[in-house]
């Protein structure tokens, strides 16, 4: 495959290959020599039209650990603010020899447009587009779940019950997770206020519940989503207190989960809204581990898309950090 635009692009074999490659790369990166020569001479452009902390930094870390050259482009402070189009920006990046463009954009469909436009020849990786998809987030989430729930198996997440809670309507993370987790054999239940469930959810491969307390005891992992107020009409939103009371995860609710079950959050968190500080800082919460796993997943995606040298190869002289 040349691009990664949607979790739906991935067959089960594709997804397992990415997870297994990320495991291999994480094992190598745990050794004292952290930098691999696999993408030396390649250029990865981080093209970010929307704010990001975790995704942008981890794609940069991933590309650098594979010895690629990295160009960070933020729409803020660029000629985008003078009205330059995505097409002209893409042509500029192509002229600079981008082998891969990692794009985050406020418009759903922008990565697809870039991949199919002919404006660039390199690979396109969707780093989050509008309310559509965030496939590498879903991959790092599945990687984290597999490590905890199916350690050492190297397969999928067959039969595991995953609950995704909160602002599904605006969540590209939820959509990508539903698609990927279904592909990996898990059963997904979405829990949200009725106003924050997308109209087309009946076509998604998952169940929907409005009662968090009945779903928690049957969950192997509970993923809390950020309430995306910046994408929301205030009229659709219950009060903060009402939201936290019905859909927030606090210590009492966490105690209803099975002992082995994970608490997950893609970040950034609204502490006190969808998750209390007590839960966010508890050992059961994998939010920080998800960030670390994101580097391994993004290394695997770049490595597989750009067809680098074998990740098991010893680094050449001068490449260690
Ligand atoms: N989870 C996630 O995409 O975080 P950022 O917006 O900080 O990249």
TrEMBL record:
Q: Which UniProt keywords apply?
A: Pyrimidine biosynthesis, Transferase
Is Transferase tagged as a keyword? yes
Q: Which pathway?
A: Pyrimidine metabolism; UMP biosynthesis via de novo pathway; (S)-dihydroorotate from bicarbonate: step 2/3
Which residues are noted in the entry as carbamoyl phosphate-binding?
A: 54-55, 104, 134, 137, 267-268
Q: Name one Pfam family in it.
A: OTCace
Ranges for domain Aspartate/ornithine carbamoyltransferase Asp/Orn-binding: 159-305
Its EC number(s): 2.1.3.2
Query: What's the catalysed reaction?
Result: carbamoyl phosphate + L-aspartate = N-carbamoyl-L-aspartate + phosphate + H(+)
Checking InterPro entries in the record gives: Asp/Orn_carbamoyltranf_P-bd, Asp/Orn_carbamoylTrfase, Asp/Orn_carbamoylTrfase_sf, Asp_carbamoyltransf, Asp_carbamoyltransf_Asp/Orn-bd
Gene3D superfamilies for the chain: Aspartate/ornithine carbamoyltransferase (3.40.50.1370)
Instruction: List, for all copies, the residue spans of the domain called Aspartate/ornithine carbamoyltransferase carbamoyl-P binding.
Output: 2-146
For the keyword rRNA-binding, the answer is no
Give the similarity note. Belongs to the aspartate/ornithine carbamoyltransferase superfamily. ATCase family.
Task: Write out the function statement from the record.
Answer: Catalyzes the condensation of carbamoyl phosphate and aspartate to form carbamoyl aspartate and inorganic phosphate, the committed step in the de novo pyrimidine nucleotide biosynthesis pathway.
Q: Which proteins does it associate with, and in what oligomeric form? A: Heterododecamer (2C3:3R2) of six catalytic PyrB chains organized as two trimers (C3), and six regulatory PyrI chains organized as three dimers (R2).
HAMAP family given in the database record:
Asp_carb_tr (MF_00001)
Name of the protein described by the UniProt record: Aspartate carbamoyltransferase
The record lists the organism as Streptomyces synnematoformans
Q: Gene that codes for this?
A: pyrB
């Amino acid at each position: 495959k040349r691009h990664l635009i949607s979790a739906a692009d991935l067959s089960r074999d594709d997804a397992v290959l990415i997870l297994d490659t990320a495991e291999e790369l994480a094992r190598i990166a745990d050794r004292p020599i952290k930098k691999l020569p696999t993408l030396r001479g390649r250029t990865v452009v981080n093209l970010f039209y929307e704010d990001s902390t975790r995704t942008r930094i981890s794609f940069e870390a991933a590309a650098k650990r594979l010895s690629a050259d990295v160009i960070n482009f933020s729409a803020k402070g660029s000629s985008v603010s003078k009205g330059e189009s995505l097409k002209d920006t893409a042509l500029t990046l192509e002229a600079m020899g981008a082998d891969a463009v990692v794009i985050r954009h406020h418009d759903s469909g922008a990565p697809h447009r870039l991949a199919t436009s002919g404006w660039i020849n390199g690979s396109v990786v969707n780093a989050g587009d509008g309310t559509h998809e965030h496939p590498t987030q879903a991959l790092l989430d599945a990687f984290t779940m597999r490590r905890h729930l199916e350690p050492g198996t190297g397969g999928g997440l067959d039969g595991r019950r995953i609950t995704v809670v909160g602002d599904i309507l605006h969540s590209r993370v939820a959509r990508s997770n539903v698609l990927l987790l279904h592909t990996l054999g898990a059963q997904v239940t979405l829990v949200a206020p009725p106003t924050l469930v997308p109209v087309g959810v009946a076509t998604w491969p998952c169940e929907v519940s409005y009662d968090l307390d009945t779903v928690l005891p049957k969950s192997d992992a509970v993923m809390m989503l950020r309430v995306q107020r910046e994408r929301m009409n205030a009229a659709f939103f219950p009060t903060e207190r009402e939201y936290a009371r019905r859909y927030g995860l606090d210590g009492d609710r966490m105690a209803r989960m099975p002992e082995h079950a994970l608490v997950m959050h893609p970040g950034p968190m609204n502490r006190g809204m969808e998750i209390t500080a007590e839960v966010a800082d508890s050992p059961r919460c994998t939010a920080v581990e998800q960030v670390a796993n994101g580097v391994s997943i993004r290394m695997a995606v770049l490595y597989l898309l750009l067809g680098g040298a074998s990740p098991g190869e010893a680094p050449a002289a001068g490449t260690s950090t």
